[in-house]
TrEMBL record, chain A:
Protein name: Basic membrane protein A
Similarity remark: Belongs to the BMP lipoprotein family.
The ABC transporter substrate-binding protein PnrA-like domain, residue ranges: 51-351
Provenance organism: Anaerorhabdus furcosa
PROSITE patterns attached to this UniProt entry: PROKAR_LIPOPROTEIN
From TrEMBL, chain B:
Name of the protein in question: Nucleoside ABC transporter membrane protein
The keyword Methyltransferase is assigned to this record: no
Membrane topology: Multi-pass membrane protein
Coiled-coil ranges (or none): none
Transmembrane parts of this sequence: 9-28, 64-82, 89-108, 114-134, 199-217, 247-266, 287-309, 329-349
Organism name: Anaerorhabdus furcosa
Length: 363, 370
């Protein structure tokens, strides 16, 4: 009797845990399209491993975009798009995991190891030096080691364009107030902020810009708290560049209604949908997927080369989401396109150095 | 069955049941159990069972020991306080303060070689001890729960340390500059032997700590007075033990161990101070380690190795196709089953003696924590 009870307890516990976890594979599988279409290759000529920061491949932003690039690579070449076959990822739970995660991929015979995000700087420098025979892709910052391809993005250019959209919208609705919620202070997110500031003021010189940083790329409750602060102060548009923490901004905009958020890194229109309409005004596009896809393809073809690769408006590595029939008026789209041409032609030079301090505004 | 045997057998049963739960879940999700064991074996020894004849990769055991060191120390830290009847949940904050001060001293104070390493570790320990002094004092003077003050001080430590780390010369928003070479615990020799793992000299400190823990708690009259306080505070007071002094000293020693854990993380694993977004959970892992290890020196050592292994093999297990949640499920199930120790004890008793219900024998162990 007692034994029955005990084994029942174990089973119950196991059952509860399975039930609790069963949603997990579904969530992580979202970037992977349904099925493999029967074209699954049984062997992989090369294996690609991606290490995310704490956000994970379902962060609806940066890391997800990187993973989607690999999925697209696998699809195009007829490999399995399932995690762990030809492409794989490891999610870091803290910065303490960076070196072990990168090293594990290198040790387990992966041909290309990808580090997503500038926070990997020390880790990629160390690990790529430890494994001179392996190839690495480092996204968002530069490593000097010869076996590392470094993908850098002129994020200030794309941010400038969404800044135009925000500035025009704030002028149209009369608030003249916009906000910026960043992840962590530093050169990288600073470029987003800088481009945005200049874009907003170019379109609307009277605008007030609030700037706050969440000190995190994963804490969405912090992102939401900052959104509450800025919307309460009268901002009608917030540009969030904070990875998964930025999802808190989108959440707050959805709950509040009547305000806008601007997506980052990828088209976040769908994430902002409420009752068939979206609160995402536009999104700043940073094609992280292009860099992971091209690097993976290069490895496959044996053409991989280390060194920095710059993505900008010119080569469409960055940009703004300008689909018609969404939330941007045709005039705004036209205005943005004009500014884009000026940036490409060198007529406007966008600085990557922000002006407004964290927690302050320009007024 | 003797109490001593029980103390060893119950955690072993709990570990067995925890692994069983992990295996069942792995089976139900359609994965191969062999991969779990192959992953754990490779994480422990560097040998790949699935690829017979492949070279042993010593980076894995090296990293395994790296992840084990701080949590053995925090396990000892929690255990030390618990033996005096206190639950030092502020351990996490003491680890952070240990890291901070060790890092600050290393960067700001130029020191001759050989001394630097030791000085930095000791000041890290002292910082942890002083941080633990606050809840200790509040507990002994005003009987304020060390759990509440400890949790609050964890956050104070986290955000306070971040402020000071950023303020150090040359710091970026994420980290400080590298600490000087002479304050580092790492060694080129270990690096070469273990295929570039981060294995470092900290293991000697851990061994010293384990031995000292055992000696103080089991062999000295000071340790006896601490244990007496833990068993029964009023009884100890009646026996002439200075209970308030015991409480403060014990939590400070506990904090010292936690501070050392923080120091070796800076001086061994990273080599610089990290501005942390969230806590590293070394202190909280220590609670599980202490619980499973039965708050004894040897038990904590083994429990620390077990939890270190489950933690460090997560990336490896994932490349073997085992979901990363499995490791977490196993470690939390183990804690769950250890917490069920009275139930296990009860069935063991029935099983071995075959006697009728003997609930009165099930005396609670450890002190009555108020």
């Amino acid at each position: 009797m007692k034994k029955v009870f005990k084994s029942a307890l174990v089973l119950l516990l196991a059952g509860a845990m399975i039930a609790g976890c069963s949603s997990k594979p579904a969530a992580t599988a979202t970037p992977t399209p349904e099925g493999d279409g029967g074209k699954t290759a049984t062997t992989c000529p090369v294996k690609i491993g991606l290490v995310t920061d704490t956000g994970g491949v379902d962060d609806k932003s940066f890391n997800q975009s990187a993973w989607e690039g690999l999925v697209a690579y696998a699809e195009e070449n007829g490999f399995s798009t399932e995690k762990g076959v030809c492409i794989d990822y490891l999610q870091s739970t803290s910065d303490a995991d960076y070196i072990p995660n990168l090293s594990t991929f290198a040790d387990e015979g992966f041909d290309l190891v990808i580090a997503v995000g500038y926070l990997f700087q020390e880790a990629i420098d160390t690990v790529s030096a430890n494994y001179p025979d392996k190839n690495f892709l480092f996204i968002d910052s530069v490593s000097e080691n010869a076996n590392v391809m470094s993908a850098v993005y002129n994020a200030e250019q794309g941010s400038y364009l969404v800044g135009i959209a925000a500035g025009l919208e704030a002028k149209a609705n009369g608030s003249n107030k916009v906000g910026f919620v960043g992840g962590m202070e530093g050169d990288l997110i600073g470029a987003f902020q800088a481009g945005y500031e200049q874009g907003v003021l170019a379109a609307n010189p009277d605008a007030t810009i609030y700037v706050d940083y969440a000190d995190s790329f994963s804490d969405d409750s912090k992102g939401q708290a900052l959104a509450v602060k800025q919307y309460d102060a009268g901002a009608t548009v917030i540009y969030q560049a904070a990875g998964a923490a930025g999802n808190g901004v989108i959440k707050e905009a959805k709950e509040r209604g009547g305000v806008w958020a601007i997506g980052v890194d990828k088209d976040q229109y769908k994430d902002g949908e409420v009752d068939g309409k979206s609160i995402i005004l536009t999104s700043m596009i940073k094609r992280v997927d292009i860099s992971t896809k091209t690097a993976a393809q290069a490895i496959l073809e044996g053409k991989f080369q280390g060194g920095p690769v710059v993505f900008n408006l010119e080569n469409e590595g960055v940009g703004a989401e300008l689909s018609t029939g969404r939330n941007l008026s045709d005039e705004t789209i036209k205005a943005i396109e004009e500014y884009a041409t000026k940036i490409k032609g060198g007529e406007i030079e966008v600085s990557a150095v922000p002006v407004i301090a964290n927690g302050a505004s320009n007024k | 069955m003797s109490k001593k045997n029980e103390k060893i057998i119950i955690p072993l049963i709990a570990v067995g049941l925890g692994i069983l739960v992990g295996m069942i879940i792995l089976l139900l999700s359609g994965k191969d159990i062999a991969t779990l064991f192959a992953g754990l074996v490779k994480g422990l020894t560097g040998y790949d069972m699935l690829k017979a004849g492949s070279a042993v990769n010593l980076r894995y055991p090296g990293e395994f020991l790296v992840s084990t060191m701080p949590i053995i120390l925090t396990g000892l830290s929690i255990s030390f306080a618990y033996r005096t009847g206190m639950f030092n949940i502020g351990c996490e904050g003491q680890v952070i303060m240990g890291s901070l001060v060790s890092c600050m001293v290393a960067i700001l104070v130029p020191m001759p070689n050989f001394i630097a390493v030791v000085v930095c570790i000791i000041v890290g320990g002292i910082a942890g001890a002083l941080w633990a002094f606050i809840p200790g004092l509040l507990k002994s003077k005003f009987n304020i729960s060390e759990v509440v003050t400890g949790i609050m001080l964890n956050y104070t430590a986290l955000y306070g340390a971040n402020y000071f780390l950023r303020a150090l010369p040359g710091s970026s928003a994420q980290r400080t500059v590298n600490i000087p070479e002479n304050a580092m615990l790492g060694s080129e020799l270990f690096k070469q032997i273990t295929n570039n793992s981060r294995f470092h000299w900290g293991f000697i400190i851990v061994i010293i700590a384990v031995v000292l823990f055992w000696f103080i708690i089991e062999k000295t009259s000071f340790g006896y007075s601490l244990r007496a306080t833990g068993f029964n505070k009023e009884g100890a007071r009646y026996a002439g033990i200075k209970v308030n002094k015991s409480i403060i000293l014990s939590i400070m020693i506990s904090g010292f161990l936690a501070g050392i854990a923080g120091a070796i993380v800076v001086q061994g694993t990273f080599g610089y101070g990290r501005v942390m977004v969230a806590m590293d959970n070394y202190g909280f892992d220590g609670i599980a380690v202490a619980l499973v290890g039965g708050c004894t020196a040897l038990g904590v050592t083994f429990a620390g190795m077990l939890f270190g292994l489950l933690k460090v093999t997560q990336p490896l297990l994932q490349t073997f196709g085992v979901p990363k949640e499995i490791g977490e499920i196993i470690s939390s199930s183990i804690v769950f089953f250890v917490a069920l120790q009275y139930a296990i004890q009860y069935y063991l008793l029935k099983f071995t003696s075959g006697k009728k219900k003997k609930k009165q024998e099930l005396q609670p162990q450890g002190g009555d924590v108020k």
